[in-house]
Design brief:
Blueprint (H helix, E strand, L loop, with lengths): L7 E5 L7 H11 L3 E6 L2 H13 L5 E3 L5 H15 L4 E4 L18 H26 L5 E6 L11 H21 L5 E7 L5 H4 L4 H11 L8 H12 L10 E4 L9
Parallel strand pairs: 1-2, 1-4, 2-3, 4-5, 5-6, 6-7
Helix pairs in contact: 1-8, 3-4, 4-5
The chain binds nicotinamide-adenine-dinucleotide and ligand 0WE.
The site of nicotinamide-adenine-dinucleotide (NAD) has 26 residues, from helix 1, strand 5 and helix 6.
Length: about 260
């Protein structure tokens, strides 16, 4: 029997087959979960539909996480289809491209608001709508973060601040939802080639540095993040909440 047999999961953030969210969906499906996918924008829709079909996913719903109304509608649809929810995965981030290069001092008020809104506040909005559906079901909420929340990385800039807010939100949400039996954790993934990192200048250099310095002397794979999410979603992690769990080949433990 699968680790997630009979569980229902909503996953935000599949853009294509390289997305961390997709590796998570595949791991959950493999272990018996029923998966719903929330995607952003019609351009993404045509890439997500065939992926959804390949794991027998019937709920594929549009949701721009900047909108409270769209988030509320999504969870209303989930309630109608399933009546409850066990697992929520947040794998969404966005900052304007201009904010991810040059000096952090040039961060604009608008760029800050956008990055924090889409990449951090959205977790709180999702958790609020999902909470009544997850109540009393040993639920698990999982967000995706990066080490740039805790240390300075060139060009990560305002995304680092957004991820710091996301990580703190994980702790506050863990406390707020704990009494209902819902756990909240984040995975801090090492650098991965996805749509979100494709446009990043110097990404190859970052990945090369990690492969040289990390204890395991290599980079992680999407599948490794999917499997860590599977553990956090499953009863194996029943005593784990409020954690930032690194899946980075050990890179973060190195001082010099
Ligand atoms: P990705 O581009 O596949 O996923 C990012 C997703 O965010 C996309 O599906 C995109 O549609 C979605 N998104 C952006 N704006 C949105 C909005 N307004 N409403 C709804 N969805 C929106 O890239 P990924 O690398 O799989 O990123 C997933 C998560 O993993 C992000 O939180 C990212 O910060 C995090 N992460 C990525 C890496 C990496 O190196 N790729 C490392 C650590 C953490
Ligand atoms: O969280 C991320 C990236 C998130 C992201 C990516 C983009 C690219 C396209 C957010 N917004 C946008 N906006 C766009 O227009 N990562 C962890 C991957 C990443 O991004 C970096 C990195 C790494 C690693 C940016 C600078 C330096 C390193």
């Amino acid at each position: 029997m699968g680790l997630l047999e009979g569980k229902k999961a909503v996953i935000f953030g599949v853009a294509n087959d390289k997305s961390i969210a997709w590796a998570t969906a595949e791991a959950f499906h493999r272990e018996g979960a029923e998966v719903a996918l929330a995607y952003a924008g019609e351009a993404v829709a045509k890439r997500v539909m065939p992926l959804a079909e390949s794991i027998g996913c019937e709920l594929v719903l549009p949701c721009d996480v900047r909108s409270d109304e769209e988030i509320a509608r999504l969870f209303a649809d989930v309630r109608e289809a399933w009546g409850g929810l066990d697992i929520l995965v947040h794998s969404v981030a966005f900052a304007n491209k201009e904010e991810l290069k040059g000096s952090f001092l040039n961060t604009t008020r608008e760029g800050f608001a956008t990055a924090l809104d889409i990449s951090a506040y959205s977790l709180i909005a999702m958790a609020r709508e999902a909470a009544p559906l997850m109540q009393g079901r040993d639920g698990s909420v999982i967000a995706m973060t990066y080490y740039g929340a805790q240390k300075v990385f060139p060009n990560y800039n305002v995304m680092g601040i957004a991820k710091a807010a996301l990580e703190a939100s994980v702790r506050y949400l863990a406390e707020a939802l704990g009494p209902e039996g819902t756990r909240v954790n984040a995975i801090s993934a090492g650098p991965l080639r996805t749509l979100a990192s494709a446009g990043i200048g110097g990404f190859g250099q970052i990945a090369g540095h990690v492969a040289e310095k990390a204890p395991l002397r290599r980079n992680i794979s999407q599948e490794e993040v999917g499997n860590a999410a599977l553990y956090l979603a499953s009863p194996l992690a029943s005593g784990v909440t409020g954690e930032i769990h690194f899946v980075d080949c050990g890179y973060n433990i190195i001082g010099l």
